[in-house]
Amino acid sequence: MNNFKKLIPFAKKYKRFAVLNIIFNILYALFSTLSFVALIPMMQVLFNDTEKVDKKPVFTSMFEIGSYSKDYLYYNLTQTIKNDGPQYALLLVISLIIISFLLKNFFNYLASYNITQLRNGVLRDLRHTLYQKIISLPVSFYSEKRKGDVMARMLGDVAEVQNSFFAIFELIVREPLTILFAIITMFTISVKLTLFVFFFIPISGFIITKIGKNLKHKSERAQQESGYFISIVEETLSGLKIIKSYNAESNFTKKFNRSIDNLLRLSNSIGNKNNLASPLSEFLGITTIAVLLWYGGNMVLVEKSIEGAYFLAYMTLAYNILTPAKTISKASYALKSGLAASERVFAILEEENPMSDKPDAINKLDFENKITIENINFRYEDENVLKDFSIEVPKGKTIALVGQSGSGKSTIANLLTRFYDVNEGDIKIDGISIKDITTTSLRDLIGLVTQDSILFNDTIKSNILIGKEDATDAEIIEALKIANAYEFVKDLPLGIDTNIGDSGNKLSGGQKQRLNIARAVLKNPPIMILDEATSALDTESEKFVQVALENMMQNRTSIVIAHRLSTIQKADNIIVMQKGRIVEQGRHDELIAKDGTYKKLVMMQSFE
The ABC transporter domain covers which part of the protein (predicted)? Predict the structure, then answer.
């Protein structure tokens, strides 16, 4: 139930709807009972056994409103039968039944209306908070998580929490009150019969509880499996070209079928137990009713301790308890699924963010002097990727990082942007540790262009505006020109308003990369990080992109992570890395003259 308490802050905003739901549920439960009590005078009129009240009752206090209402009704029935005949008295009690059922269903609608506002409002806010958490967690968190599992928590688990936890409102208000009012009325009619009914209720509850055992554990396993199969679908769509080119469709189909078969077994097991709740509670209820008919029938026919009309009304009230009892048993089963779902949702919401800003972190608005990387060590798991790594990047200079794959080049980009934090050592901008700078202001100072052209299924304009949300069309076009991209954008059917498809797949690799560069140009940051921005391109596209990069790097501090060494020969300082360490550094000509690692790399690429 702790997770239910965690939902209360989300519901506080909608407490008006919660209060109204409770009020209307109380009225529903009251009129639900009264609608069956109204059958007593109807049957008495039918059997010509109406209680005679000749004197008009006088209202004395609220505590006696029940007896006053009863006497007032029978006074009017007595006068109607005397003056107009029993058929008009029958019409009166039938009208009373219709009005009580009308009010019962009217309050039912109002209660449902308010719980709907509460449920949907909390669902929206919960998803909003979960998305904010998902987007705020560091990149390192998702290197260990399946995207499909996170998506399943956002979509399926949050909805499960909504459906199951707000069933508690029915569980703690409407249905128990319906049962309570019915039982109070049943006690009023016959204490002996009601005590007889109570003998069977614990037996029914014990049987239903036993069947619902282990439901939470199975629901948790089903939700985990659901996340896994969504991951398979997401990976299939992302890697469809590879799957098809390697004829791996059957392999992925087997994985998918195995997952949905597991999900089928779990869902069937959960569904069968849920489906059993309603018929089982109804059967146990009907069994109780049958025994009650025998026992109560003897009280009417043999003992004559209860009137027939009262007994029939009693039976309808007893049967009326079955519906809320079924609802409670189904809701208690659903609650177990909700508990499993809520644990998965709150596991994300309560995840600690190791890279959250310090309380006294400063907003750094400009870059004045230099970037300093001081004796840093970093590891993703056990082995260090960077070892005692130190460099200095003066303002306005271009620094290139080169080396074989796995030497730690791209890790520098991840650390500078605080996608990850260093294990030892420090990174400073103008002498201030980046851990003492707010993440937002740090990333405002940096533009990042990666080798993967990350674009979104939207227009060119919307993709570029990520760099500067309030930019004008003229500024966008200027950025596209600097990025050497406007020459193809202007020829598109809708220009900058052309949709580029999922991941920009309507464009070539070179075109996509130039749009990435245009986005960074529009942002106009003082520090630019280019992480192998041309490594995935063909020679012709590389030339276009290289021109765009040179345009962009003018008058900026740039850190270029390069695979193709021909692109960084003009750099002010080239740092050669090997297994996380610096083995050489200097300008292009100086490193060639050293006849060391750099020259070997250049010679190897010249023969490619």
Answer: 371-604
C-alpha torsion angle, residues 493, 498, 499, 501 (rounded to 10): 60
Let me know how long the chain is: 608
Per residue in 222-253, pLDDT (tens digit) is 767 776 767 777 667 666 655 765 677 777 78
Tokens of 101: 């059922």
Strands 581-586 and 573-578: antiparallel
Residue 541 lies in a domain: no
| DSSP tag of 498 | -
Contact 454, 139 (CB under 8 A): no
User: Which CATH number is 604's domain given?
Assistant: 3.40.50.300
Cβ atoms 277, 330 nearer than 8 A: yes
Alpha-carbon distance values, 368 to 282, 429, 432, 546, 556 (Å): 77, 9, 11, 27, 12
Domain presence at residue 255:
yes
CATH number, domain of 296, equals 1.20.1560.10
Same domain, 35 and 174: yes
Could you give the angle at the alpha carbon of 582 between the alpha carbons of 382 and 407, nearest 5°?
45
Q: Inform me whether the pLDDT recorded for 215 exceeds 90.
A: no
Q: Is residue 525 part of a domain?
A: no
Are 147 and 169 contained in the same domain?
yes
User: What's the total number of domains in the chain?
Assistant: 2
441 and 345 in one domain? no
Cα-based torsion angle of the residue sequence 43, 48, 54, 57 in order, rounded to the nearest 10 degrees: 0
Average pLDDT over residues 117-133: 85
pLDDT of residue 456 exceeding 90: no
CA–CA separation, 575 vs 588, rounded Å?
10
Residue 118 is predicted with a pLDDT of 87
Position 244 in a domain:
yes
Same domain, 232 and 120: yes
Same domain for 433 and 576: yes
- Is 0.85 surpassed by the pTM of this model? no
Among 325, 349, 373, where does a domain finish? Answer: 349
Q: Is the dihedral of CA 424, 427, 431, 432 positive or negative?
A: negative
User: What is the distance between the alpha carbons of residues 315 and 311, in angstroms, rounded to a whole number?
Assistant: 6
Q: How many CB atoms neighbour CB 119 within 10 A?
A: 20
State the average pLDDT over residues 63-88: 72
Residue 462 near residue 456, CB atoms below 8 Å: yes
Whether residue 154 is found in the same domain as residue 31: yes
Question: What local confidence, expressed as pLDDT, does residue 189 receive?
Answer: 82
- Give the residue with greater pLDDT, 595 vs 221: 595
Could you give the strand order of the β-sheet that contains 424-429, starting from the edge strand earlier in sequence?
Answer: 384-394, 370-379, 424-429, 432-433
Q: For residue 75, which of 104, 52, 98 has the smallest C-alpha distance?
A: 52
Flag whether pLDDT at 550 surpasses 90.
Answer: no
Q: Which residue, of 286, 315, 349, is where some domain finishes?
A: 349
* Statement to judge: residues 264 and 387 lie in one domain: no
- The model's confidence at residue 530, banded by pLDDT at 50, 70 and 90, is confident
Range of the domain at 395: 358-445+568-608
| pLDDT given at position 83 | 79
Confidence of residue 608 (pLDDT cuts 50, 70, 90): very low
pLDDT at 535: 61
